Amino acid sequence: MAVHKTFGAAEQVALGRKHATAALIVAGLAGVAQPAAAADYAPIDCAKASLPTEQTICRNYGLGQSEARMATLFGIVTSLVAMGQRGDIGDTQRQWLKARNQCGTDIACIAEAYKARILTLSTVMDGIASHGPF
Prior knowledge:
The chain is mainly α. It is 69% helix and 0% strand. The chain has helices spanning 9-30, 52-59, 61-80, 83-101, 107-129. It is elongated, with a radius of gyration of 19 Å. The model is unreliable at 1-39 (pLDDT under 50).
């Protein structure tokens, strides 16, 4: 026996906003196959990885997952912020890459670099989301 809940008008509006926001986010994610600012950051092409850090990331599943998550966040965030903020995020991305690459083959160092960058990008994303609905 199926149970169906009937929603009032206010609940229907709230649900509509949630679904609209989710649809916009999904649409944005679908359009981010490549980062929005490829000149600022292009995900590692393991076939062309030349730096010791890049090669380590390509050989380590967990680091590869962190790379994918960070690249996705970077692409989404840079596509949603204003041009001036996009430039700032690109600048910090280049600085972060230099710091990450100084880790060499130290897996713990690379993992910590990703953890910090993902947190930074997630914080920016949370700030964007707090200004919804979209």
